[in-house]
Queue: 4 jobs
Job 1
Amino acid sequence: MLATQAFGAAEIFVAPQGADANKGTRSAPLRTLSAARDRARMQAGKEPVTVIVADGVYYLAEPLTFTPADSGAPDTPVVYRSENEGGAVLSGGARLELRWTTYQDGILQASTPEGIAIDQLFVNGVRRHMARYPNHDATKTTSAYQGFAKDAFAKQRAAGWADPTGGYIHAMHRSRWGGYHYRITGKKPSGEVTYEGGWQNNRRMGMHEEHRMVENIFEELDAPGEWFHDATNRILYYMPIDGESPEESVVEVVRLPRVIDIRGSLEEPVHNITLEGFVVRHAARTFMQTDEPLLRSDWAIHRGGALLVTGGEDIIIRDMEFDQLGGNAIFFNNYNRRVRVQGCHIHDVGASGVCFVGDADAVRNPLFEYRQKNDLQRIDRTPGPQSENYPADGVVEDCLIHGIGRVERQPAGVQISMSRAIAVRDTSIYDCARAGINIGDGCWGGHLIERCDVFDTVLETHDHGSFNSWGRDRYWRSDRSVTQEAVDADPNLPFLDAAETTVIRNSRWRCDHGWDIDLDDGSSNYDIYNNLMLNGGLKLREGFRRRAWNNITVNNGFHPHVWFDQSQDEVFSNIFMAGHRGAQTPAENAQGKRIDANLFFVTDARTVDRYARFGWDVDSIVANPRFIDPSSGDFRVAEGSPAREVGFRNFPMDQFGVKKSSLRSIARTPEIPPLKPGDGHESRGRRRPKAADAEFFWLGAKLHGLKGEEYSAFGTRKADGGVALVEAPESSLAAAVGLKTNDLIQAVNGAATPGIAQFLGAVAESGPSPLLVQIVRDQQPVEVAVSPSVKIDFETSDNVDELAVPTTSSLSVTAAKATSNSPLRSLTDGNVADSYGPVFPNGENGGAYKINLGKVQDVKAIRAWSHNKHGRRGAQRLTLYGSTLSRDPGWNVADRERFTPIASVDTTRLPRSEFEMSGVAAGAGSSLGAFRWVVWRVYPVTNSEENTAFQELAVEIGK
């Protein structure tokens, strides 16, 4: 009763001019929130309590902490409220009163208080940059760290640093899957920088060779807005920006990594507390504590934030602003139920906006590093979690989130991991270094993403999406065949963790540096409908039961990557503006359940036929959907649109993103692109074949040079490239030496092979010698020793007599198309001359020569001689085929009933001489096969599409 009377009907007031000895009334307010909390604790749970905080900045000496003792109850909540929304600022920093003097070169200096550590510096509310190299350039929004340099911490650069200890190295992941951070520990006597760190990414593959930056190095203080704090001598150095007067400026530094800490547990939660209307600022960077891997996702996480909630129930974060934070803004850790973030503005934070992350001990058979694998015969087959220590039924709604990842490069506007039934709705998210929304695993599904507006994402990274997910759950292995066998035996396996369907609907997405919606490795049990995708399209990779319908992909389409057999995936009633862009999908045994009844707004009517042999798009159509007003972002279709024929139905185009008026008035919206109907993207039936249609083979395996987004499917970088064995039958020589379908060859004997020409050239140069082949298999590096039984012959000389020209042959040569210059009979006359030979015209891709051996015979070797006419036409780029038919088999070498691929040759990257001999030969006692017909299918060898000047063709019979 006394407490109630003293506090004026359960209202407690706080003001900057108050005193903690006061009664806490409006006329006699308290000074600190911690004192108000202690007073409120006396009534909490007994009656409603409201703590009203007056406008002002409250610099906290320690985090404002709430425990179960501070809890309210459903009918007696505890509310902490800023008297005016945005008026009360809770700061984890301090304001410095400094006396500036001139140092040198435009740099000022000032003494700082004893014992202070400065993690970040703000001048008049604007973050300033630690002294760094290279300098920060705010205009480089998509450049790593807004400025990077290969020599960031090179020995030559470090030679100018007296003592870099305490500096930091920031470097992008080798494949730009986020970033790494290192603390510099000093220099070796030889001058190299020493450092520790690099644990901030769960795919530890090393730092990028160019995308690097260093900071907190005194000698790099050379640009306006940069600063350096000499903590030992307590001196702050600062170079003001033009027009700035530090003496008249508000200078604030960051001290605390956490501003508010709600600290409960599964057994004893904190509940029924609302925080409303505050601004939370100045939390320290935590990138060196971002070290916990998350369930084989690409993430590592720091379980902390400016506002950390552990063990919360019915906690409401309403109408708050989070700004100038070095790490995560809001973090819901382990057990949380019915927590809500509503009407908040979260911006310019070092890591993620809102995180929901559960306890790994709640997961059955958890694995952490990407390469780890479960024994699928021994895993726990019990569905769902094994404890309740995780977030569930949480909500992020009506929020504006932007400026995500100002320090770290593996963040998200909203991050969800080891959680269930999290809803993100009516929220605008943009300006993100990586994902807008990320779901890191399938545990335990049931999430709802709706009416969101997510764009300008993946700005500094690679291979990701505005929405991104992984599902590397207990069923998933990187060696997919093992997972496939286990799921074939138990189709419920993918849903042990992804037990409830996750829904993505009625949202707008745009990613200019990846996919709009990217369901990556293992992501399963999704419904995706009524989404407007403005640039990157939809990607589904190796999961089960994904259903996508009634979506629109502007200027893009559907990207099926690496599917399982019987995946039960369905993609129907969508409007696509490009043909499907498959990467290892579809395949004979990976066709999905239903990919059909879609509308393609493209210029090539044959687009729908691209995957017809897999049963895809049998009832799809090519037509103009007749969008109502696409230039203004209204992609509804007009009455009578042909989209109706495939079942498409309009959905609202004015409900995307934040609704709160004060936030909507400042929120950006994505740029609406002009319509560019696609040409079908690699649709069949071109007017003439392109060089990209060429088939190449080695040891019976079909080769494929990666392009476009296929690098993502193989988990490698475009810079590294590679040659994929897209078909390596068990009967092939490739399989016999230990190679497999979908192996990606990246080097031979230590020489990089980014493309087919480099690979075949490296094999040719090795001759009959053994090969050490470096491959990526299931996204892991493997080495295979190969002793080829079929070798590529390659010799060059300026003296034709040194090339062992064959004698005249009576075998006749025919050509698929007309040749120029010499007659075809010159190819078997035993004469290698300084001439064009019977050459195909420039631009002729896929010309072919054929020899009739008269009967089926064992073929020991096949070779060709050429002349380097005008220094350009000596290289050979071809694939050899054989046929056993008694009649002329024609020229369709892709017909496997008529032709057998033998091998390929590509010498375009090898040294040139006047004359060249290339070919393939079988080892002792063996043959290349028995054939009656041999075909050389040849391709241009110069950028201007000039064909080889062939002089002689020869087939050696026998074993």
Job 2
Amino acid sequence: MKLNEKLFANMRAATKTLMGQGPKAATSAIHEALKVLTPHKAAAAQQAAAAREGAATMRDLNTPPAHARAAGRDSVVPPIPPTQAQAGAQAEPASQDTAAPTQEQYVKNAVQEATAAFNNLMPDLLAKLDRAGASGHTAFKMPHFDLPGMHGGAASTPAEALPGKFTDGSFTNAAGTRTYKLYEPSSYNGQPMPLVVMLHGCTQDPDDFATGTQMNALAEEMQCLVVYPAQSMQANSSRCWNWFNAVDQQRGQGEPSIIAGITEAVMHNHAVDRSQVYVAGLSAGGAMATIMGTLYPELYAAVGVHSGLPFASAHDLPSALAAMKGNFGPQKASGKSIPIIVFHGDKDTTVHPVNGDELIKRGAHHESKGFVTEPGRVPDGHAYTRTVHQRADGTPQAEQWLIHGAGHAWSGGNARGSYTDGKGPDASREMMRFFQTKR
């Protein structure tokens, strides 16, 4: 786009406003800065407003005929100026097969260009805001502003269309209500199938998480059901599972009771192989997956944790922040260890990679009789180190993937979902392989 220099200048001005004023002013500043992306809209709006003011001052008492009224309405907004490419095309004789771009098409193209520029700009802008906050400026909370088509997260990433059914559900118990989405593969006809419970990370939702992990496509291939519980904004404004609250670390209490209830509801309403029920999650969802496997070992046969934390590694927000940096409190007794597979990027600055080491240490503490380590690399992607802790019979009890150069993102994920890194090994596929290993 040729608008980038002006766009960046406007966004820098918006940044100053963001750090000095409240959310309402910040929202207004961002909207003002983004007007450069679709200048024809602003011009059209101004001319339309002028036309309305003119109409208010001179009222025609004699109503014109219908065709004249239509022409008058059409003349309020002038034709959209052509782009440079369109102007060049107009210099050539028009082909009978080529239709001139409509105003709707022009607006659609402009919005697509704006979306690309906006998505490229925002990470840098947010990083600068974070650095400014670290330098002593007043803490800033990003306001919500609704710009259709310009969201890079859950709102704009519906799950990929697949032949199976992706339906909504809801579960309520004494601890509260949570919605969920359930994927049934096209091969499901009432025969028992494995069930995978997928717990999203902060700011995500079931559609976004399904898109990023591509777990529904795997469900089609491997013939299993997948359920995605959804955290509510009422329970956590960032949609994080509350893994650090004491009540949410107890069996039959809080969010664990709700997630277990959703799992059992799906098992009641569908044919599920009770020996093949698994739980996995990312970040806060990974921490909650650990809690679920620890508190309900009779329900879940194995756990998958991506960029998550150990069971009861925090009891409030300050200790949660410390645990994310790798500083754990006293370890709580976790009882029976169940099979676990862990993925973590060694450049993760959100949840320190030592959390992955601690998860493996706790998950393999009684059962492991030895381990095997092997290096690897994804073609044109990240290198990794895979360590398998084996039981006495040679079957895997715990498996750790340390992904070199990766940050806080689902390894091998689809870029259409948030928090994904397509350069890493396919975490979803490897988790399914681990889950289905006979033990």
Job 3
Amino acid sequence: MTAPPDLMPDLLPAPTPGLMPGGLPAVPPGPQPALPSVPSFGQASGPYSEAAPGVPGSPEHSPETAPDALAGFTIGVTATRRREEFSALLERRGARVVQAPAIRLVPVAEDTELLAATRECLAAPVDDVVVTTGVGFRGWMAAAEGWGLSSEIVARLSRARLLPRGPKARGAVRAAGLADHWTPPTESCEEVKQYLLGQDLRGRRVAVQLHGEPLTGFVEALRAAGAQVIEVPVYRWLPYRDPSPLRRLVTQAISGSVDAVAFTSAPAVLAMLNAARAEGLEHALIAAFRGPVVAACVGSVTAAPLTERGVPVIQPDRSRLGALARTLARHLPENGVTRLVAGGHRLEIRGHAVVVDHDLKPLPPAPMAVLKRLAERPGHVVARSDLRLVLPGGASRDSAEHAVEMAITRLRRGLGPAGIVETVVKRGYRLACDRDEW
């Protein structure tokens, strides 16, 4: 799995610096060297060796199951089926979830193509049946029952080799009273294809249950090997009825308002890319996924449209929603957090919140953007002109100057303890990461 590097190195605490007349901090001139690192929350080291119970990094919870493992992070969920269940898995770990259904499943029980494919299976013996999804196979059996063909199709399939792609498909096969022949360890259509191509397919009749879109390469490879392939279209993926949540998620990903987007099907990935393309934002979305926004996919089939475009993805070892949630709960705290000490206080900067001495404090977008910019060069002065560039919106110079001051004020209020963010007269602001004893 590909994981982006930590955003910033950790920092050692140091004494509070002296103050200039008027209460402003003294900032020595000249080069400002890089800061050494300190252990992250939960690691054994001095007074910070024990995390508080119930907060990120607490030793009483594993990283994947801690109730606040995802606190401070925002995750977009594109799933349609079981999205409430998946969202609950993330929210239980403290995440803020943005639901943006990308696609909808449309059954085709009345579709003439499915009926024609079923009759073609009944017209002559079928040697192999590739079952790509459990919901698709169940839908096929239900449609056959509605046509009065249930007993005939079950009898026909009982004499074929049934090849479920994964455990859900295998469960649907067994629920229909049928015996499965083989399931690929990787749960991928590619491995099923290679399994079949390793045999003599000349003259064999192979039924392939589609999973919402054509399996063109799969089918063509079998036909080229001499098989007679029957494509069984049980349902189709169509764009979700209300496209506005997905369009908003595209914008949020590009602006960095979400830390990760989770995908549970390849059609959902394509739907988001298509929504971005319709707005002229596909390249910007791809750039976001290659940069700060994590693309999390339930499996390699789902990830394919992104990996083909050079997007790094994270995915669990097993294609399950629970495993995907655990992967996010492990990856984001390890790779999406900046840890440092400023003004004598330990900070853990997350997506939309900061942990200050084990106290989680959500921040509005503007103060958070300023904090992240300051944390890119801890202890260094960042000019107001630089901070203007990270503020949301495109305000004019004068209004932006005021916006920076307001963002700093709100940031200090949100952080709580005084002395974390320092004003450097006529120059800008900095995080109080001190250098007096170097």
Job 4
Amino acid sequence: MQPSRVTAVLGPTNTGKTHYAIERMLGHRTGVIGLPLRLLAREVYDRIVKARGPGVVALVTGEERIVPPRTAYWVCTVEAMPEGLGCDFLAVDEIQLCGDPERGHVFTDRLLHARGLHETLFMGSDTMRQAIVAMIPQVTIQRRDRFSELSYAGSKKLSRMPARSAIVGFSVENCYAIAELIRRQKGGAAVVMGALSPRTRNAQVEMYQNGDVDYLVATDAIGMGLNLDIKHVAFSATTKFDGHRMRELRPDELAQIAGRAGRHLAAGSFGVTGEAEELDEGVVNQIVNHQFVPVKKLQWRNSDLQFGSIKRLLQTLEARTDNDWLTRVRESDDLAALRSLGNDEIVAARASDGPSVRLLWDVCRVPDFRGISKGEHASLLMRIFTDLHQIGHIDENWFALQVARIDRDDGDIDTLSKRLAYIRTWTYVAQRKGWLRDENHWRDQTRAVEDRLSDALHGALAQRFVDRRTSVLLRRLKQKESLLADVNDKGEVTVEGEFIGRLEGFRFRMDKAGSPDEAKTLRQASAQALVPHFHLRADRFYNAPDTEMDFTEQGGLMWGDQAVGKLTAGDDPMKPKVVAFVDDEAGPDVIAKVQRRLQHFIDRKVATAFEPLLALKNDETLTGTAKGFAYRMAEHFGIIPRGEVAEEVKALDQEARGALRKHGIRFGQFTIFLPLLLKPAPTRLRLVLWALQQGLQEFPESPPPGLVTVPAAQDAAPGYYAMAGYRAAGARAIRIDMLERLADMLRDQNSKTGFEAVPDMLSITGTTLDQFADLMGGLGYAAEKGERPKVKAARPPIPDRPADAPGDMPGEGVPTDPGEAPGPDLPNPMPDEPTTVPGDAPTDLPGMPPAMPAQLDAIGDSTTGIVEEGTDTTEAPAPEMETFYTFTWGKRPARQGGRPQGARRSDDAPRKAEGGQPRRGKSDGKPGGKPGGKPQGRRGPKPDDKPQSFAAKPARTEKKIDPDNPFAAALQGFKPS
């Protein structure tokens, strides 16, 4: 007799391997095909029945057995394949499962021992090529290529998942959660899991295949040969629990599932969704190119069993092999059950001979469909074995009670699923030959219960995960039927009388509180009513005045309270582009009209806010360096730190500078800027345009208007404060125009010997003394803190005068309470008019006598300790102390303004002091000089060369009135003599 021809058909998914096996089997008189799942077995069984009729086709799985009298073709799960039939043809599908830790030993046994009389066929992945050749030397290998292209689509949100997609999860809870989300967003999904009965699974698949729903949520069960109309496969996770631990799926396992996308010649794609991370590029290349690590080890368990005793059976089951390709499978559930029952004395006594040991082994192979504890499963098996051993069959009363307890079709999805798992156990038992006295009755009975539960579960799944209204609308849309849709004057959209959302600007928003959010079918239905409404709204928007529109600090474009677009960077920083927020359903005409109107709005906004800058840029009379500098100003939106253009400024001659000053440019010591652009409106727009140019993801907001200084954020984007019209110095940032005024004041101070802050400095910066010291540190000055007794001048007697007489001193009426002194962030609405406190010249200035004579008389001679007779000898109270800072030029700060701050004169500063006297030149040790060369540190004051200094403190005590001053006398109400 000619030996069986063994062929291995290997390749990726969608190569027609299963179809080829069916064709080959039907070419023989008899045949057996083993499949990895009972769902796939049922699908193949139905195909062969259509070709040959039900009278010659058998279906044998763990829970189902259909065997007609004239069976010629057997369709089975691999575990249920009959042995010793002597059929002409034999095939095993998904042979790469030889490497599976759970079921691999069964597939390996079929690879080694299962043969057809004339032809044997193994179908599976190309990773099995080396192993098959090693185990079957005479095998013929056929390599098959995929019919269609498979590509990687990356990550997609569920809300953007294309139609005809399958979302894969690896737990029941995960699948249900995904299906619920799809119901809300897409109208519904079918659910396919390995734990479902074939009847439920077929009903769910039919719902997907006929178009009632466009989405399928499944476990990895779809990876084993199920042929469905799937265009895209998305993994919601890339890890699974394999019964022992959570592990990452191997590339070949991912490819087996991803390959379900694209059937026959139709291309398919795969990707990830939800919380699943993007697949590595190497993994993607392996899947797309079908190149995986070959299988190195095949799971194996000895099939040459000996049933002399339980101990001997265990020894043969645990036997090892010397074959390098085979590795012993880890302890399986049936072996664990045998070990557990074998330890029971009663079971061990009953299983004392070969037939009883064989019976015990058959009982131990009943799967734990219920998923309960090993102890409970062992108790169930012990009861079955006891009945079979004692009375020859299972007690039918007890069996009927177990089935009756499950025969209820009420409850939720979880309850029905649990009952289905339980009935699978009794269906499996009923399929065992000779275990029940009336086998046919109980097979029909358990099958009927499973069918009822399957129908109930299908109904529950459809009710929970499918929106019936959406399904109806979907079918009517496909059939081109008109829908009752309406849009009222408030933008509320109703379909078939039900409120489903509203229009916001030119985009449709689904109602989250009502129907499924962003459901595609409802959106399509509403589009029929929205298209004419879009055109009417676009006409009204195009004719709306600019006052109804505005831009946000994040670059958004608003029409009233509705977002209608956003700004994007253009080729010219002063000419941003716009993107309109318009739904595609509105049509290209509406999109173009809205975008054109928004562009007109922002162009006019820029022209108005930056009129001085645009006039500077477009001035044709400017030439040479002046013209180039004008373009530099335009590139920087009218504000440039001087340090960035120091050489360019140096290159400007007086004529060029004069031409630029005519446009309002101020050449400050720290910044070159257009003062008109420091107003709130240009600043707000400038920051948006600058953020667009920089490509920032989050745009910084402009500081509150009117503040001279603001807190300086450490994480601010480089260049932000310049664009906001400020300069960061220490913990705060100061407005650049106020900084230039401060620089003018600092220029008159001696930065070598040291100076103290005058009240005007605190006034224009709006800071406290400590804040001012920190700000000066940020500008490069060293601040030395000290304390000294607070000296108050004696108040002179005030002559009697009428109550309504005017004050006799400048500044009378100024608050003297420290709490009324100007604080930080004092509002200053106009850039060139800082808030100041009039009449606050200090009275306790260094260089003045430390105390008035009247005070000296009260204190006495403190140097000699002599006290005049009659003087109170009580110890004088401790003098009140005050804090002061002495500022010297200390260090060079970050280069933002060029030369050392405070040591140079701005180009626009007056060149003469008040009164027409020229200012002093470089430092000569006198006030008003500039430090020459590098700072040499603070020089201590000499008794005969003490610089005049000032301190910021509460309002002073009024000085005496000069009686010879006619102005002061007039203020006091005196008449000149």
